[in-house]
Amino acid sequence: MFGDIIDKGFFPSFDEIEKQLIMVASKPDMDMAVYSKLLLAGYLVPFAMARDDYALLLDVIKPGERGPELIGRIKSLQTSRESLEKEDLGSVKVEAAVICDNDTYDLLEKYKSDNLISSLKKIRIDSLAEDLYDVLSKGIEVATQDFSFAKNYMILDLGDYSVSYLQDVPAGGWTDEYKTEKLVLRYIPEGKFVMGTKDGQIGCCADAEPHDVLITKPFYIGVFEVTQKQYELICGKDPSRYKGPTRPVESVSYYMIRGWMEGNNWPRGRKVDSNSFLGILREKSKLQFDLPTEAQWEYACRAGTETSLNDGTEITNWDHCPNMDRLGRYARNNDDGKGGFSEHTVVGCYRPNRLGLYDMHGNVWEWCLDWTGHFDKPEVNPVGPDHSYARVMKGGGWHYAAAACNAGYRDYDQCYPDCDDDCNGFRLALNLDEY
Q1: Is residue 145 included in any domain, yes or no?
Q2: 159: buried, middle or exposed (CB in 10 Å: 19+, 13-18, 0-12)?
Q3: Same-domain pairing of 90 and 180
Q4: Which among 433, 428, 24 is positioned nearest to 230, based on CA atoms?
């Protein structure tokens, strides 16, 4: 069976891979990025794709250290061809040629464990095409693969509620169509991160101490905050105070999004009221959309960073921070020419994070599923306390200072579930185990 896959051109021959690796390993002065990309393109891409561990491979493989060892591993594969596996990425069923013997797999797992490498760091699946182009442009021939089955972006059409998928951002970018007539969600793989705010950070919260969190299940999350036009198409009306079809919907409460009866039972259940936004969306789409948990939200926001802002920088001033100016609308950059004035603005105006998610800092506060509560211990897929007085909101908003935009910060003023302040919005999530 493995031979058939090679014959069909799914994967390059072992001889070709070995020749490429020997060539690269013999040139210690070769650019590190080119070396890493060559290895990813020639041998390790199928393995990395099945496990979503590009960053792991880049951290492990270094010129002069791992090249010869990997060549030896690849040679041994000629007698170990039974390693074709089927990987189930949540509900995304992918048959991937995972070419890796047990020793190599153990080696990679060891590095992953020792270095606590997050699968969200450095290189993502959707950058593969660009990586291959960079390698080819330097005159190095590599065998390319067909990864058209990758489902990095999920698109929900709000006309007929059909679902489609994209591997990469469209050539023309996310046009207004994707902010009004369609919903776009980004695939987020499982992984580990440090949740909360660190002592000394501006925007530090006393009840959000740093602690390890493990997310074991992949999920989708909105690339943008839900816009006013999207809300109107789903519910038939727009409750926002400051109007604009591609601006985030605001003046929405937790009750309006999930309902005040069954919808307020989280974490005891995932049901929502039928007349709520999510009740209507679930009925129309036949998909179990929801708000993200606080852990899912912060994990997606950070995208592998541990700083107060998701581009790897820190908030430098409580009130006005130049770093925050680049990432989203808040109280001190509302006259920067990106639309609006002393209010929110069009989604997607500012710099996205490494996963391509926009406005995770600023614009409008975003509701999460959880009740507020203190946390300081390692957790796995946390869902928040059983009860409290208010629900979590994250990200900061257009009339708040830079400090409130810290990735680990939580709002306390507008969190009552019936609060429909004009700075309150949300983005959607979809768990793959419920898809």
Answers
A1: no
A2: exposed
A3: no
A4: 428
Alpha helices in 294-398 (DSSP H): 294-302, 322-325
The answer as to whether 20 is a domain residue is yes
Residues 196 and 224 in one domain: yes
DSSP 41: I
How many structural domains does the chain have? 2
How many angstroms separate the CA atoms of 264 and 324, rounded? 33
Report the candidate in 396, 425, 39 with the shortest Cα–Cα distance to residue 225.
Answer: 425
Which one of 102, 137, 172 terminates a domain?
A: 137
Q: Is the dihedral of CA 205, 208, 213, 218 positive or negative?
A: negative
Relative to beta strand 219-222, strand 182-188 is antiparallel
Give yes or no: residues 126 and 233 share one domain. no
- The residue segments making up the domain with residue 97 are 2-137
Q: Is the pTM of this model over 0.70?
A: no
> 214 with 325, same domain?
yes
Same domain, 358 and 263: yes
Helices (H), ranges, 286-392: 294-302, 322-325
**pLDDT tens across the length of the chain (435 residues):** 222 322 333 334 445 544 554 554 455 444 444 444 444 444 444 444 334 444 434 444 444 444 445 444 444 433 333 333 333 322 222 222 222 233 433 443 443 444 433 332 223 323 333 433 343 333 333 223 333 334 789 999 999 999 999 988 998 899 999 999 999 999 998 899 999 998 889 988 777 889 999 998 899 999 999 999 999 999 999 999 999 999 999 999 999 999 999 999 999 999 999 999 999 999 999 999 999 999 999 999 999 999 999 999 999 999 999 999 999 999 999 889 998 888 999 999 999 999 999 999 999 999 999 999 888 789 999 999 999 999 999 999 999 999 999 999 987 666 899 999 999 999 999 998 664
Same domain for 172 and 111? Answer: no
142: in domain: no
- Asked whether the beta carbons of 230 and 222 are under 8 A apart, the reply is no
